[in-house]
Design brief:
alpha+beta; 3-stranded antiparallel β-sheet; 1 helix
Amino acid sequence: MTQQSVRFCAGCGAKQPTGARFCYACGATSDNMTAQAIPAVAVPSLNATTKIVGRVLIACILLIVTAILVCVALNMLFGTLTGHF
């Protein structure tokens, strides 16, 4: 991971865009701005997220199909025993 440098106004603490000559919040000159290094944030890849969502979706579909099959089997079993099918 790389680090990016972000500038802040020393007077008011507002974050400043790159190349700003004056603070947009308080009007201080760029001489009053300090740079701070912030670490880059790791973002999970879309492929990893997509795989997880796909697996959860498949598991839900299998659970629903299993529940339907169990209901059909119970209906056949108890419907046959009671004379209703």
